Amino acid sequence: MKKSDGIAVAVIVSIAVVGLAALLCGPYLVEGAEGNNNYVIRITGMDNTVTDGAATLMVPIPVYLSGEPVFSEANLARVRAEPGVYRLNPDWNLSVETTPYGDMLVFRSVSGEVSDIDMILAAFDRESGPRLLMPVVSIPGNVSVETFARNNYGKYQSVVYADGLRLSADTSADFDLRYIGGGGKKLAFQAPVWESSVRASLPGGNVGFAEAAVTYSVSDSWY
Asked: Among 119, 132, 41, which Cα is nearest to 80's?
């Protein structure tokens, strides 16, 4: 075989290998997928509870480190327009309001008797970076939020709020919150998955803000 023929064969083989690789791996190299965000909010212990005219509950909201909320006002407007899709009990109205600690997700009752909350917020990612449940009240070691968010695991303090519920002294409003988001894909890169969760109880008669521990973790999978 002539040297030129050998070169030609090598070139053909190389092209074939590259073509096969593109055929097999192309979808993973060129396709992307937006990250998702789910926030499950459960506040229990209130079924058939009478209010003092109007009850108010507040929980932390997921916020990107940039300061942008994960769930936009348009997302919340869809919840208000179709509460059944997001499992929002009709006893409650949903909004975001500014508190002494920062912006929080607020539930206000629309009747004199309320039931438990068990709903979910869902939206595609608008940013790809870290995010936490905020407001952040304190972090062990007094590190900044930006420094803390670089960790794969940790705990910090946020707040929850309850007012206007006529709960007996031996009962409580129990908060069980779980946010998970991220995991978007772009080219060969997959973004991390960020998770923050809260479990807290406000005993009957306890009115106002109460600190609540947030467990924060970062992984490479939703599972």
From this structure: 119
